[in-house]
Design goal:
alpha/beta; 2 domains; Rossmann fold; 4Fe-4S; single chain; six-stranded parallel beta sheet; 261 residues; binds flavin mononucleotide; iron; metal-binding; Alpha-Beta Plaits; 35% helix; Flavoprotein-like_sf
Amino acid sequence: MNGALCYFSGTGNTKWIANKISDYFKENDYNIDFFNIEYKEDFDLENINKYDFLIIGTPVYAGMEPRIVSNFLKKLPKGNNKKCIIYSTQGSNKASAAENISRIINKKGYDVFIQSSIKMTNNYYFAMGKKPTNEYITSTLKEAEVKCKNIVDGFIKGEKLIENTNSFKLGVSKVLSKGFIKILPKLSKNMISKNDCDKCGLCVRNCPRGNITMENGRAVFHSKCMLCLRCIYLCPKNAITYKNKKIYKIQKNIIKALDIK
Ligand SMILES: Cc1cc2nc3c(=O)[nH]c(=O)nc-3n(C[C@H](O)[C@H](O)[C@H](O)COP(=O)(O)O)c2cc1C
């Protein structure tokens, strides 16, 4: 059996989970091919029809999937009853994103078999929440790994696992998410590169929106930022600040799950 795993991951959490899910499938002689939504121009979406099942992974921004994922869903071909696993990663226990994606792709004719919200570290802790400790990160990753194994075992055994979010919560999240998208340009102005920048260009090369340029020896952020925070966590000098705050590198190890250029 062959599965296509389509994901977006800003700072590595969603890709880390993708790797775990893929590893567990491989242990059971299933093959998983990754499709990074960020590069969707590089792959033909119709190719997904060739796979036996589909997995979609997303981070959660203001309760929902980011626009890069919503746009991908719009272009996804019809499902013809193809089995699907939908997962989100977020800082809290649960969010509406997975439910929202399930509803969208159900309408396209996919059969959502697993729908799961997986708690990971909150990479936006400096704006909402509190700084995760190392112990918290370790135990969160352990719990997430168990969840990945249960997802794969359940899928292989043919057991449906749907973590529902009620329609009221989904409605509230949709409103919040629309508000978030509106104020994104304002929020992203909080990101500034400081003098410590050594012009390595990692942020420029790896921004999923091509939103950063190097000008006069400093990273300059333009107006297309989606606030994925990859640049902040990738910067080896910790030179990118948010509201003048230096960010504690909670994604230091996890971000290695991404294919960094
Ligand atoms: C702009 C932004 C908004 C976020 N909003 C939420 C949220 O509403 N609820 C939540 O639980 N986590 C939220 N988070 C935390 C992320 O969903 C979480 O850290 C996720 O696992 C990041 O995945 P990634 O590393 O694959 O990008 C937010 C993160 C960012 C950057």
